[in-house]
User: What shape does this take?
Amino acid sequence: MKFLQKISSIPTAPFAEDRVIAYVKRFVADRPRLKLRRDSIGNLLIELPGARGPRWVFSAHMDHPGFRAIKMMDGKTLIAEFHGYVAIEYVRNTKVRFFDGDAEIPGVVIDATADEHDRLEVPRKVNIRVNKPVPAGSIGMFDQGIGRVKASKFLSRALDDLAGVAAALAMLDQLAKKPPKATVAVMLTRAEEEGFIGCIGAVLKPSLLKKTDRIVGIECSAEQPYAQQGNGVILRTGDRTSIFNSSLTYFMSQQAADLAQLDKTFKYQRALMPGGTCESTVYDAWGYLAAAVCVPLGNYHNMDRAKKKIGPEYIDISDWQNMVKLFIAIARNGHTYEPGMKLLRERLVKRFRGFESLLVKKN
Assistant: This one.
């Protein structure tokens, strides 16, 4: 939980993930077994070396829909850019907060110019009333507070996908104390909310990735009626655009089932989550072996659809904790994975042999 609270409170926005990157660097520096690399566009790869088999890569993105200050029009009016998939009607007249070093500058959006993002009308240029000048380049977020607990829920101005980053680092924190047999890595990408920009760069210029990697995309995905909060971490079989690797998903499902037998508090679900497209689709499109895991998210991209206004994102605490447990189980048993669903084939053949004699025509 300490990683979830800390990381979900770090200011971030597409193309402005510097504070998250700084936190990751400190995290790795405190754990000598971990190795950190960065590609030419700023994506990060944290690696925990192992002795056996291909590498398992857990991938999350470091940004969240947000603002970047462009210039002050006068002493109280800021022009800023907005990046991310949020309907424009939610952004107008909402409270925001900009970050300049340790200073925080509140404001209110007074106007927004429309753009189109994946068939949704979203803001691009916005005018914001602020109480003091905001330096150009400062990042802004919806003013919905830092990470905090409320009953069984965890709320923050940004959980997509900082909660995913937190789960991946919580996994590495445990694994670094007793490394698994397979090499495990965490890929942290930039500018996902503007259309997977960092992830696309990572596959176009693959200095961090290998074609032999087994990739597990991590997301907070909009809650669905059949995949609700509190029912467990979700093995995401696909998103709005694509279906993920069947063999890898089957292996992860077996790990989840085994974990549920050993830990009666562990709960999981399996579902196609069509609320959006995630980075596993990008990895799949470039021929990588990719699956996905997520937790169901409330107020996706801060859009409180019931109240028709901006609100804090929220997840169920136990879902997030179960996601960390599942990551650790997958990592520790990753060296046993064999492509092609060998275990399933063996089960099916065994069942066939049991009834084969009934199929043979008798003279």
